[in-house]
Hints:
This protein has a single domain, classed as Cysteine proteinases (Cathepsin B, Chain A), CATH 3.90.70.10. The termini are far apart. Helix 2 crosses helix 3 (83-89). The protein has helices at 42-45, 58-74, 83-89, 100-112, 127-135, 151-154, 194-199, 220-229, 245-256, and strands at residues 22-26, 29-33, 116-121, 143-146, 174-181, 186-190, 215-219, 237-242. By secondary structure, it is α+β, with helices and mostly antiparallel strands.
Amino acid sequence: xxxxxxxxxxxxGAHAGKNHPTTLFIGGRRTKIDYSKRDTPxxxxxxxxxxxxxxxxxxxxxxxxxxxxLGRRHxxxxxxxxxxxxxxxxxxxxxxxxxxxxVLPAFKERLKGAGYKPRELxxxxxxxxxxxxxxxxxxxxxxxxxxEEYWARVTKPEYLxxxxxxxxxxxxxxxxxxLRISSTGEVDLYDSxxxxxxxxxxxxxxxxLLPQQAIVQLPVQEVLKYWRAARYKSPWVWWVEPIDRExxxxxxxxxxxx
Length: 258
């Protein structure tokens, strides 16, 4: 059975679990962030996240979620992309899903005015790259894709047939938000599909979940197996960072130290 993060960590409020505020340099200006995603409990990071509306819109939903968290952390309202707009930017179709080749350029144009850009690594060889994005407060939370084997860990057995392919040739990869990688080798993942599973009594996490409770905890070696087995552009990671990332990091080191 999929594990759950320790509920003793759970606190309320977007800034729960924060350490001292940090100053970042974004667009040549000092930006004080209220909390560090490195030191914030997973439940607090996922506060305000949405469940996906359909079976095949996980990527638009999760992009919307990580932009919401990044905008909150950096105090930048221009980063907010409503769910419906995220669907349109991904050229989402209820039957055919998203137009994958359009996602990166569409969000690049949409986020330019906020001073940010999307980044994508296809066939990423090293899990350490995901960990670097997660540690970096300039960056959003990272997205990863996982294979259909993942469903066996989070879904009751009688429901698995929905994710085992069929004549329509559905793409069975699923997009998750990486919230935390613990020192003991556990990974906390936000699964936006748990809302539908919960309402239909097929989630191993329980019924009537709130979005911030839809967190699956798995050993890192198991996550790596699902990540590397995904069918499309695997292994894949997607995140958002400031456009002048190198300059921002240089200012950070020069003026504030490591």
